[in-house]
């Protein structure tokens, strides 16, 4: 997902430099960014949740 976001940003920068920027090019990076915004915190919290769950099961 981060690769898709990076590619979208690079395409956006190229379009702006060439002054052929369309509105959809600006929004191109938003879809991967929204997905990263959702999945990022979930992946950050996941180790803490599993550690707590394992501790509760053991004790």
Structural account:
This protein has one domain. By secondary structure, it is an all-alpha fold. The model has no long low-confidence stretch (mean pLDDT 85). Keywords: Membrane, Transmembrane, Transmembrane helix.
Determine the mean pLDDT: 85
Q: State the distance separating the first and last CA atoms.
A: 38 Å
The count of helical stretches stands at: 3
**Which band does the percent of strand residues land in?**
under 5%
Count of discrete structural domains: 1
List the helices and strands and how they pair.
Elements: H1 2-17, H2 23-27, H3 30-58
Helix pairs in contact: 1-3
Give descriptors for this structure.
59 residues; mainly alpha; 3 helices; transmembrane; transmembrane helix; membrane
């Amino acid at each position: 997902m981060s690769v898709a976001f990076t590619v979208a940003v690079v395409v956006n920068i190229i379009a702006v430099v060439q002054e052929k920027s369309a509105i959809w090019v600006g929004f191109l990076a938003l879809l991967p960014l929204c997905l990263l915004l959702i999945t990022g915190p979930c992946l950050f919290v996941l180790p803490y949740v599993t550690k707590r769950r394992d501790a509760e099961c053991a004790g």
